[in-house]
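Progress against Task 2.4 (sequence-to-structure conversion) is shown through the following example record, which the project officer requested during the mid-term review.
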Amino acid sequence: MASQVTTRRSHWWQTLAGREAIAGYISISPWVLGFLFFGIVPLIAAAYYSLTNFDILTPPRFIGHDNFVKMFIRDKLFWQSLKVTIIFTIVTVPLSTAIGYGMAVLLNQKVKGLSYWRTGFYLPAVVPGLAAAYLFSYVFAHDFGLADSLLKTVGIKHPPNWYGSTEWALPTLMVLHLWGAGAGLILFLSALQGVPTALYDAGKVDGANAWHRFRHITLPMTSPVILFSLIVGIIGSFQIFTSALIVTEGGPVNSTLFYVLYLYRRGWEQFQMGYAAALAWFLFIIILSLTILVLKSSARWVYYGEE
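Structure tokens generated for the chain above:
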């Protein structure tokens, strides 16, 4: 009897559960290997390089926590880039989520040509960031751009110098970012269409008007998708790079010096790869902390169906 049990145990892979487990491991192996080699290994390497003086051309030299001391105490541009990025995040993430959700609510109605409207609203989200940056560099070009031409037609003879002004450069880049607010449109639409119609019918029977149904049924039922959109938006806003590099190059006077742009300059223009690794690790800590904070707060406002 013991020998039979041993035989069965030695051939577990021949059972249905064993074959399914092997097939599952084989299926996820590309992702696991990619995560290890392109995620974990670079993360560990960055942690090591953050403690070194490394200029790419010569071997790294261990200096301990000097890069972090320099970052927090002596580097004014670090604080400037962090301030610019935080302001950008505070303004654009809620607005982008609200605009995307609002468009989804409108496009969830029964109107003529609905497919064309959905395509038009979603189209900016699929335009490459590089193309959008070049497009908006001409739209807000001083004196001859489309924005200036429209303002002059309504009587504003001296429009702002959009990208050349410290007051207007960052807000203009925010407009560029909000232009693609329809990126979450598909997710919001699927969440809205997944709300059971029986809940709306019950609300109507109880005398709830359109606003009450939206406030007490639609928002709670779609709150998990709103949470996901906020987290993805926060992560993306701290990684803004292309638009600032192409359009403003961080200017004028570092008013659009985003964190990742500053990290890029330190690492690939000034060859201070050790310092850039320290900046990258601090960025990882910021994003992780904000993500945990949002997830912790979700217990108060996110509703799940089984609750």
